[in-house]
Every structure is written in structure tokens, then in C-alpha cells.
Design goal:
27% of the residues lie in helices and 28% in strands. By secondary structure, it is an alpha/beta fold.
């Protein structure tokens, strides 16, 4: 079981951006014998076939075509590849007061204070021209710490421990080095592209999508190493568990793993859950609209996205009857306003699955009645497709921080629960 967690940690460490996560998932499924597809081409899908493809290099889809697709329906696993972070602005150079800095935008609902005083690197995609004037795009990862965002000394801000708000425009710019008059960010990127991808022949950088990340590696921590400490647990933990479940499924059922980009900013993109990615796949998988509708009504989606564990220092932020504890099992998430798509019947189905094995503990989460919860791709997918959905995830602390905390045992339990889900012969509602 320890090797499973080692694989998870290695995957997260090698995936500092959605592009890298998608690339690594593609490599994983390619090595497992899944056939790569291209959305620009016609597809010939066969029963028993195993396939994968990507969209915009940042969303990943893998699926199997099982037996009796219409009557048995589809087992859908949904997660997302993006995490809140600091993205580099298009014209980022800030050369002032003896230092070279880069201006950033905040992506998603990032918890900003933890980003101060961290060792930061940079990763993402760079697009440019090669020596023949052709457009090329590559992924880059500096890997080493090339920047930091220093805190202001408490002597210059005596209220830092009692009233610390963060102005993202002024305070989150990343320090690179002492001022050099010849410093050009695009020159820096071109040198990195050349070092990582000499074969691409890029001669000019045209644009980029890059984000900072903390170089501290994921680790199992705690007195008994029962916690997983890492960046991007929300939601690469779910991507990894979904991939593991599909790779270990028996192929009898039709299964789709969909890892969307842009969940953290509302999913309103061509590769997000509000886009056409899933419906486009369903139209190819089941071209006949009547059969497609029948199959979807026989289907179920697990929207797998981490939940808020009850924080022992802030227990009053939770409903007293719904405070999930890390390592006490996956969390079924409820919301009366359907920010989570769980219904009583989908929750009951999951509880029935778990009841088959005493070790598969489950918990429930609903936010306090005087607070609002977040949301997931679950309600969006359910509304766009008509697939019944349950929102479920592992409890964690420090959600949207640059370093989050989840449970080792919860990862094992979720893994087994997903395995059982993919073995189900039918959805009983």
C-alpha cells in the first residue's frame, strides 16, 4: 500500500501545472496500452477498447467501452487538473529599486498568506516560432527555486499578527534577482526552452501560460506518517485515484475518467466542465440520440473533489454534526442549493457500496446554515448531461493553500471505493 502513496506523491511532484498533470496522465495510460485519440480525427470505437485523449493540453479524458453500454450505462469519474496559484502576467517585468521582479495574477481562490517566504519555481507552457517560422508549443519546468515573495518585517508592520490582509497587486510580485538592466523575461524563457527542448528549435517566444509553485516536495508527515502534505492535493489527489481505479478496472463496464481544467475559476471554457468536452465524447460513443439518452439515465458520476476536514483550531467553522475527520473515510458532500450534486439516492448508493466492506468508512459534510459552500464540476456535469451525480472527496486542511494536508488512510479507502464502483453491473435507480 505504501507504493500506492509513493506513486501519488511522485505524480503530484511531477505535475506543477495542469499541462504537466495532463502530460503525465497521458504517459501513464499510454504505457498501460490505452490507444491515444485525436479529436480532430474520426474515431472507430470498439467494444473492449481502451482509449484516451487530451484537450488544450490541460484536460484529460480516458475511457473504456464495456459490455451492454446502453442498458448498463457509464461509470463516470470526474476531477480537475487545476489548482489555485500565481500566474505570470503577459508583460511581467518589474525592474525597480534594485531588484527584478515578476508581476502575477491570482488564479482561483488562492489562500495568499502561505505563499510568502516560500522557495518558488515556474512551470507551464510556452509558445513561439521555430527557425522555419512555424508555431511550436512546449512544456517547461524550471524545477529549482528561482523566486520568492518575501514578507515585510514585523518591525515595519506591527499589526502583522493581528490584522494581515494581502493586496495581490502590490504584495504578491515575485522577487527574481538583483536588478540587471539587460533582463528580459522572454529571453529567460527562450533559454529554458532551448535547455529542455533543443529539438523544437524555438527562436522566438510569442506567449506563455506559466504559474509559480512551491518546490518543497510532497511527503508523508505526522508522528506515524499518517498525513499527506503537498501542493495541489485539490485536486490532483482525485485525478490520481480516478486514474488508478480506471487502470485497474476489469473492462466489463463502460468507464469515463474526465479531468477538466479551469474548475477553480468556474469551468466556463472549452476544456472546462461547462464546455463541450463530455457531451462531445458521448456523441461519439453513442451516435444515436435515443440510445445515448437511455445510457445516460443508467449512468452515475462520482464527482471527486476534496472536502473540508474539521479543523481542531477552528471547529466552530463547521456544523457540529458534520465535521469530517482526516483518515476516517471519504466524505459525501451535501448542499440544499445543489452547489454539490449529491441526492439522497446517489448518497444511498455510495453507502450501499461501502457497506459491503467494513473497512470502507464514510463521512458526511454540509456547511453551516449561515455560511456558503464552494462548488465542484458535479452540478455542472449533471445539468449538462442528465447524469445522476454524487459529490464525494477526501477530507483535507488548508484547501487552496500552496501546501495542503490530507490523509494516507483516506486515499486507500477512496481507492477501494472507486474500484467497487467500477465493478457495479448496474445502477439501481
Amino acid at each position: 500500500m505504501k507504493t500506492d502513496i509513493d506513486g501519488l506523491l511522485s505524480f503530484i511532484n511531477a505535475s506543477p501545472s495542469p499541462y504537466h498533470a495532463t502530460h503525465n496522465l497521458a504517459a501513464l495510460f499510454d504505457s498501460a496500452g490505452f490507444q491515444r485519440l485525436d479529436e480532430k480525427q474520426a474515431w472507430t470505437l470498439e467494444q473492449g477498447g481502451r482509449y484516451f485523449y487530451t484537450r488544450s493540453d490541460a484536460s484529460f479524458v480516458a475511457f473504456t467501452v464495456g459490455q451492454q453500454l446502453v442498458s448498463n450505462g457509464i461509470r463516470l469519474l470526474g476531477a480537475h487538473t487545476d489548482s489555485p496559484c500565481l500566474k505570470v502576467k503577459p508583460s511581467p517585468e518589474l525592474n525597480q529599486r534594485g531588484y527584478s521582479r515578476l508581476g502575477v495574477e491570482v488564479y482561483g481562490g488562492a489562500l495568499l498568506n502561505p505563499w510568502f517566504d516560500r522557495d518558488l519555481s515556474l512551470a507551464g507552457r510556452v509558445s513561439g516560432l521555430d527557425q522555419h517560422g512555424q508555431l511550436v508549443s512546449v512544456l517547461i519546468n524550471f524545477e529549482k527555486a528561482i523566486a520568492t515573495i518575501p514578507s515585510l518585517a514585523i518591525h515595519l508592520n506591527r499589526e502583522a499578527n493581528s490584522n494581515k490582509s494581502v493586496n495581490a497587486q502590490k504584495e504578491m510580485n515575485a522577487l527574481l534577482c538583483n536588478l540587471r538592466k539587460d533582463f528580459s523575461f522572454r529571453d529567460l524563457l527562450l533559454a529554458q526552452v532551448t535547455a529542455e527542448h533543443p529539438e523544437c528549435g524555438m527562436t522566438e517566444v510569442l506567449d506563455f501560460n506559466l504559474s509559480f509553485y512551491d518546490v518543497q516536495a510532497p511527503a508523508c508527515i505526522g508522528l506515524h506518517e499518517e498525513f499527506i502534505a503537498s501542493a495541489r492535493l485539490d485536486n490532483l489527489l482525485s485525478c490520481w485515484l480516478g486514474a488508478d481505479a480506471l487502470l485497474n478496472s476489469d473492462g466489463n463496464q463502460s468507464v469515463i475518467l474526465m479531468c477538466n481544467d479551469h474548475e477553480e475559476i468556474g469551468s466556463r471554457t472549452e476544456s472546462g466542465a461547462q464546455g463541450t468536452l463530455l457531451n462531445d465524447l458521448l456523441a461519439r460513443l453513442l451516435p444515436d440520440s435515443s440510445e445515448r439518452q437511455q445510457a445516460l439515465r443508467n449512468s452515475l458520476m462520482f464527482s471527486i473533489d476534496n472536502s473540508h476536514g474539521v479543523h481542531p483550531n477552528y471547529a466552530d467553522r463547521h456544523d457540529e454534526k458534520h465535521g469530517p475527520v482526516i483518515n476516517q473515510g471519504p466524505v459525501i458532500k451535501f448542499d440544499a442549493d445543489q452547489s454539490y450534486a449529491t441526492s439522497s439516492d446517489t448518497a444511498a448508493f455510495v453507502r450501499c457500496l461501502a457497506a459491503q466492506e467494513p473497512k470502507l468508512k464514510l463521512q458526511s459534510f454540509v456547511t453551516r446554515a449561515d455560511m456558503r459552500c464552494g462548488s465542484t464540476i458535479g452540478p455542472l456535469t449533471a445539468a449538462n448531461t442528465g447524469i445522476k451525480t454524487v459529490d464525494i472527496g477526501n477530507a483535507q486542511f488548508a484547501m487552496h493553500s500552496c501546501r495542503e494536508l490530507a490523509g494516507v488512510e483516506d486515499a486507500h479507502i477512496m481507492r477501494e471505493l472507486l474500484n467497487r464502483f467500477l465493478l457495479c453491473e448496474s445502477i439501481p435507480f
